[in-house]
Amino acid sequence: MRAVVTTESCAYQIHYHFVIPVKYRKAIFDNPDCEHTLISICKGIEERYDIVFEKGGIDLNHVHLLLSAAPRFSPSDIIRIVKSITARELFKKHPGLKRELWGGHLWSEGYFVATIGEGGNKDVIQKYIENQGKSTEELQLKLFDF
C-alpha cells in the first residue's frame, strides 16, 4: 500500500483499478514471454510518469492493474498512456501479435476503471487481482446452508 505522496503543490493518495481487455478477447497472454514483456514495459512507464503499478493480474485475454497516479493525470490520461505504450512495445517485441490481432490494435477500445479506497475495499481488489489467471476450482466460492 502506498503512503501519502507529497509534491511541491499537493499531497495525494489515489488508487485506481483498471481492467483492459485484449482486442477480440484473444488469449495472447498464454505466452509467458508476453507476460514478462508487459511487466517490464509497466516498470518503464513508472520511470517516465508519476504512475506507480502496485499490483497486476494477467488473465489470458485481459489485464487487471492496481495503480496509483498523480492527480494531474485523469483516469482517461492514465489509460491512454498505459494502452498506447504497452501496445507499441508489445508489438515491437512480439511481431507475431500483429498477425493474430488484425487491424493493428492490441487493446479493446473500452476499459473498466474504479477508484479504490484505503479501507477493506482496496484489500479486496488487491486479492482479486492476485488471483487472476488461477484455476476457478481453487477460487470458487463455496455456498452452504445454515
What does this structure look like?
The protein is of the alpha+beta class and 146 residues long. The chain has a single domain, classed as Alpha-Beta Plaits. The protein contains 5 helices and 6 strands, in the order βββαββααβαα. The protein has helices spanning 32-48, 75-93, 96-100, 120-130, 136-139; strands at 5-6, 11-12, 15-21, 51-58, 62-69, 112-116. The strands form 2 sheets. A 4-stranded antiparallel β-sheet has the order 4-5-3-6, with helices on both faces. A two-stranded antiparallel sheet has the order 1-2. Helix 1 (32-48) crosses helix 2 (75-93). The relative contact order is 0.22.
Order of helices and strands: EEEHEEHHEHH
Q: Tell me the CATH superfamily.
A: Transposase IS200-like
CATH architecture: 2-Layer Sandwich
* Overall form: globular
What fraction, in percent, of the residue positions are helical? 25-40%
Which sheet architecture does the biggest sheet show? 4 strands, antiparallel
Question: Tally the helices: what do you get?
Answer: 5
> Under the CATH scheme, which class?
Alpha Beta
Any low-confidence stretches, pLDDT <50, length ≥5? 139-146
Q: Gist?
A:
The protein is α+β, with helices and mostly antiparallel strands and 146 residues long. Helices cover 38% and strands 22% of the residues. Helix 1 packs across helix 2.
Question: What characteristics describe this protein?
Answer:
single chain, 146 residues, alpha+beta, Alpha-Beta Plaits, four-stranded antiparallel β-sheet, two-stranded antiparallel sheet, 38% helix, globular
